[in-house]
């Protein structure tokens, strides 16, 4: 399936996704408006400006509720099992919104006949009750909609699994092409549903697990295509079947992992990754010893001793590794011994302080706590240096992918001896990368990065074996184009994972140096801007659909702008054709001969367009986020005006058509009268 086909399918799924995405955003808008309304000061002077502001907020609440209810009802109509519950909650929300609008309708408050009118000034309690009912009913709709999303994902996954079973048993190319086309459509839908879910997840650990599972499915889809075609072309080749089975097995595991995440059901016996992380263990240990300052009986000395020993045992992954230098190994052992001695000193002072609560003992306890904390910090630094230096050196040595190139060459030459030699070298590389991923996991610093390290470790482990089986197939059939294509796909997956590992290493360094929080804030801001832009795109499309003449120049230009904005929205979700920040900036650089005539005719749009062009052309060294932020913000402003403009142009067009019809009618009547 080509990318354009996938993109077309993705576009058709936007309406369904928009329903699921719009609800949380609309709820946030409603909450903000209600907070503004309720927090107004009762003793504020009731000037015309204040009255108008309150009325506008009340109307905005009602309007936002109306849009929320519309989306909720659309979801209800597609899900009959939940329709009654969703509709009841929507009715409650609508009634509450109308009540708030009525209580804030104070346009006639200054007139004598309005003396008995109940408003927010005379019945603030009524507004609060309505607000509570509104938020309660909105929450109900969201919870029910969440069940709908989970059901959609499970249904989509079951369809994918069923089609995969058919693909496993297929025996002819023609049948394979037909089934794989269906499989491709189902995978695109599953990818979008799970992508929406990933963006909605609040738990960063679950989000990282979902990202890892989705990455496996994305890469394995192309592998499945070439591995299956190779099996069909060489049905008696054992290595080809082994290669194909590996892809199917990994995809099934990833599909199961997605369902575990969305249903929050962990299989029995599954261990928590965080339990094997040295940095996590050190963090918890330091919290425990620092708690002794407030409570000397917080826990037993045995617990502290066992906890430290578990941490230091895990450092054996570093000291026992064949890839750790002698200097690093000696330093880690030295710091481990020092930590043990300082814990003994801490325990001794701690026991004394329980029976002798003097100032000098308290100060000595504080000093021993600081000493062991310092030693553990030094141990962390040494472990971090060891792992990151190993990773950097390994990535540098494998940057040219010499072994992969050699495997491809031995394959097309049919050189079995060369295959054995370079397969052995790739296995060595694989073991090195797996080992380093294991060490990086210990020093990653956050649970999401630990999960990413585990994903990288598993990917190198599996892909390494699959490259060897694909290379073996090509060596046995050196003239086979499909076998060569299959090996290329697996080699590209390996190279891609090497690139991902470089990114992972940078992120681990960012966490260690305290830069991670800033980047997460930037990403959250961009995601929020993107969601609002996506909703504006939907509004623009609704206005465009009203026009009977879809080839009208205004409509065509509006559609082009909406398409561009939608690409930006997909970028903020990590989807679509724009892969990098630079792609996004180039997308917004309009050439002089391509500038839309519509923009030149509308005064409001001209300043925003100039500002947008200025932003794209202004160099901002090391401030890519700032540039992307400004680009999306300016595009949002343009889209907001476009939505209003399309609506206004449509009304004017209808009015013009009506006047033309009247003119034709009058002209015809005059013509008839003249003839008479």
Walk me through what this model shows.
This protein is mainly alpha-helical and 676 residues long. It has four domains: 3-106 and 121-149, Four Helix Bundle (Hemerythrin (Met), subunit A) (Up-down Bundle), CATH 1.20.120.230; 170-266 and 399-515, no CATH class; 278-392, Four Helix Bundle (Hemerythrin (Met), subunit A) (Up-down Bundle); 543-664, Four Helix Bundle (Hemerythrin (Met), subunit A) (Up-down Bundle), CATH 1.20.120. It has 23 helices and no strands. The longest helix is centred in the last third of the chain and has 52 residues, at 624-675. The radius of gyration is 32 Å and the shape is globular.
SSE inventory with pairings:
Elements: H1 3-12, H2 14-38, H3 48-78, H4 83-103, H5 124-169, H6 173-200, H7 204-233, H8 238-263, H9 278-290, H10 301-314, H11 316-319, H12 326-355, H13 359-397, H14 402-413, H15 416-443, H16 447-476, H17 481-512, H18 516-546, H19 553-572, H20 581-587, H21 597-601, H22 605-617, H23 624-675
Helix pairs in contact: 2-3, 2-5, 2-18, 3-4, 4-5, 5-6, 5-8, 6-7, 7-8, 7-16, 7-17, 8-16, 9-10, 9-13, 10-12, 12-13, 13-15, 13-17, 14-15, 14-16, 14-17, 15-16, 16-17, 18-19, 18-23, 19-23, 20-23, 22-23
């Amino acid at each position: 399936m080509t990318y354009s086909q996938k993109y077309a399918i993705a576009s058709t799924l936007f309406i369904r996704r928009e329903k699921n995405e719009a609800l949380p955003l609309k709820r946030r808008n409603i909450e903000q408006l209600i907070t503004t309304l309720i927090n107004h000061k009762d003793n504020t002077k009731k000037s015309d400006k204040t009255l108008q502001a309150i009325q506008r907020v009340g109307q905005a609440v009602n309007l936002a509720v109306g849009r929320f209810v519309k989306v909720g009802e659309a979801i209800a109509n597609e899900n009959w099992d939940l329709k009654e519950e969703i509709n009841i909650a929507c009715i409650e929300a609508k009634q509450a919104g109308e009540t708030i609008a009525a209580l804030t309708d104070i346009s006639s408050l200054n007139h004598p006949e309005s003396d008995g009118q109940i408003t927010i000034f005379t019945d603030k309690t009524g507004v609060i009750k309505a607000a509570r009912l509104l938020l309660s009913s909105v929450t109900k709709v969201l919870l029910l909609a969440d069940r709908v999303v989970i059901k959609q994902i499970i249904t989509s996954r079951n369809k994918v699994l069923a089609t995969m079973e058919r693909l496993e048993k297929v025996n002819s190319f023609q049948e394979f092409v037909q089934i794989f086309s269906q499989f491709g459509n189902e995978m695109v839908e599953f990818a979008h549903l799970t992508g929406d879910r990933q963006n909605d997840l609040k738990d960063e650990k679950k989000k990282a697990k979902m990202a890892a599972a989705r990455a496996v499915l994305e890469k394995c889809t192309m592998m499945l295509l070439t591995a299956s075609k190779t099996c069909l072309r060489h049905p008696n080749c054992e290595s080809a079947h082994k290669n194909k089975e590996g892809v199917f097995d990994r995809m099934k595991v990833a599909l199961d992992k997605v369902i575990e995440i969305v249903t929050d059901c962990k299989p029995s016996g599954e261990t928590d990754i965080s339990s094997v992380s040295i940095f996590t263990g050190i963090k918890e240990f330091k919290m425990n010893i620092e708690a002794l300052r407030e409570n000397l009986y917080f826990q037993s000395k045995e617990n502290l001793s066992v906890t430290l020993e578990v941490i230091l045992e895990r450092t054996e992954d570093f000291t026992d590794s064949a890839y750790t230098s002698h200097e690093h190994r000696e330093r880690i052992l030295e710091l481990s011994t020092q930590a043990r001695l300082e814990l003994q000193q801490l325990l001794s002072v701690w026991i004394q302080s329980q029976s002798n609560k003097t100032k000098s003992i308290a100060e000595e306890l504080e000093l021993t706590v600081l000493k062991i904390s310092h030693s553990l910090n030094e141990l962390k630094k040494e472990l971090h240096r060891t792992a990151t230096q190993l990773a950097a050196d390994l990535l540098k040595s494998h940057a040219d992918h010499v072994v992969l190139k050699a495997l491809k060459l031995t394959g097309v030459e049919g050189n079995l001896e060369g295959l054995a030699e370079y397969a052995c070298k790739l296995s060595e590389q694989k073991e090195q990368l797996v080992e380093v991923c294991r060490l990086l996991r210990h020093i990653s610093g956050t649970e999401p990065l630990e999960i990413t390290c585990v994903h990288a470790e598993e990917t190198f482990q599996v892909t390494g074996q699959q490259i060897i089986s694909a290379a073996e197939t090509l060596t046995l059939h050196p003239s086979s184009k499909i076998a060569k294509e299959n090996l290329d796909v697996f080699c590209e997956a390996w190279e891609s994972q090497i690139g991902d590992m470089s990114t992972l290493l940078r992120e681990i360094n960012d966490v260690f140096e305290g830069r991670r929080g800033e980047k997460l804030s930037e990403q959250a801001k961009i995601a929020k801007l993107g969601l609002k832009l996506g909703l504006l795109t939907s509004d623009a499309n609704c206005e465009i659909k009203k026009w009977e003449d879809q080839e009208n120049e205004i409509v065509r230009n509006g559609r082009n702008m909406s398409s561009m904005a939608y690409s930006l929205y997909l970028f903020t979700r990590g989807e679509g054709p724009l892969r990098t920040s630079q792609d996004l900036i180039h997308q917004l650089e309009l050439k002089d001969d391509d500038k839309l005539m519509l923009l030149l005719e509308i005064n409001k749009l001209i300043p925003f367009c100039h500002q947008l062009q200025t932003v794209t052309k202004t160099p901002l060294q090391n401030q890519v986020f700032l540039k992307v932020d400004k680009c999306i913000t300016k595009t949002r402003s343009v889209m907001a005006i476009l939505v209003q403009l399309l609506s206004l142009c449509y009304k004017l067009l209808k009015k013009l058509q009506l006047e033309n019809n009247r003119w034709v009618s009058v002209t015809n009547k005059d013509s008839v009268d003249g003839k008479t």
